[in-house]
Amino acid sequence: MSYDAFAEFRMDGHDVIITGGAQNIGAGIARTLSGAGAKVMIADLNGEMAAETAAEIALATGNDCRGMACDVTDKAAIDAVVRATVDAFGGISTLVNNVGWGGRQEDPAAIPEEEFIASYRLNTISAYRMSMACLPHLEKARNATITNSGSFSSAVPAYDILPYATAKAALNQMMVSLAHLLHKRVRVNSVLIGTVMTAGYGDAGIDPEMQERLSHPDSLTGRPGRPEDVANAMLWLCSPASRWVSGQTINVHGGGTVVRLFGR
């Protein structure tokens, strides 16, 4: 009798929403979960790119993958994504709160209050709203999970990206609290992500010279991450293979240290 050691990593029969999945790490997660058999809805602020990425993934994996526009700071847009996913797939078993962004501050001592509020809305409140909107459907699903894309910056000194790091630290607290609130019904976990070189670094105001420094990180593996490194961890946390794991933050940062590479 043969034994398939990877059978429990399969996502057949799972219906997934991934926020911020049109490019970079989110697209890597979408590709991996689809490749494992899941039906995937990519929800992204850039609806056109979400649809293009979804079409490419569906062609590559042969599984149903769709994309649509969603501003995760808008409750009506969140509700629309949930309705569209249920209409398309019949339910929701898996939510990946991947959306997140934060720019670098030149003067950490003079950050406007509004910047903290905007970061909290995008990086923390959006995950809560999306989780609550999906909850009625998650509670009906087999192996229901919520998994957040966190940040290693939430666990180390991060004066150069303070609003973002602070909001991601709040996300960690929200994750473990929801895991206890939803115990026995929905598993909730987070991945604390280190330096993954994507186009997002340029968008955040990190110049090419600094990106070159970041590409040789002070970590145990000696390289920056790739989207697939994060996606593989997400697959484990979303799949039945991790059915005994909830309320956890999983570090995926190459064995990163507390050393900040941005400098003052």
UniProtKB/TrEMBL annotation:
Lineage of producing organism: Bacteria, Pseudomonadati, Pseudomonadota, Alphaproteobacteria, Rhodobacterales
Look up keyword Oxidoreductase and say if it applies.
yes
Please verify whether the record's keywords include Oxidoreductase.
yes
Family matches, as SUPFAM superfamilies: NAD(P)-binding Rossmann-fold domains
* Family according to the record: Belongs to the short-chain dehydrogenases/reductases (SDR) family.
Top-level taxon of origin: Bacteria
Q: Which UniProt keywords apply?
A: Oxidoreductase
Q: Which Pfam families match?
A: adh_short_C2
Question: Know the name of this protein?
Answer: SDR family oxidoreductase
Cited PANTHER family: OXIDOREDUCTASE, SHORT-CHAIN DEHYDROGENASE/REDUCTASE FAMILY (AFU_ORTHOLOGUE AFUA_5G02870) (PTHR43639), SHORT-CHAIN DEHYDROGENASE_REDUCTASE FAMILY PROTEIN (PTHR43639:SF1)
Sorted alphabetically, which InterPro entries does this protein's record hold? Answer: NAD(P)-bd_dom_sf (IPR036291), Sc_DH/Rdtase_CS (IPR020904), SDR_fam (IPR002347)
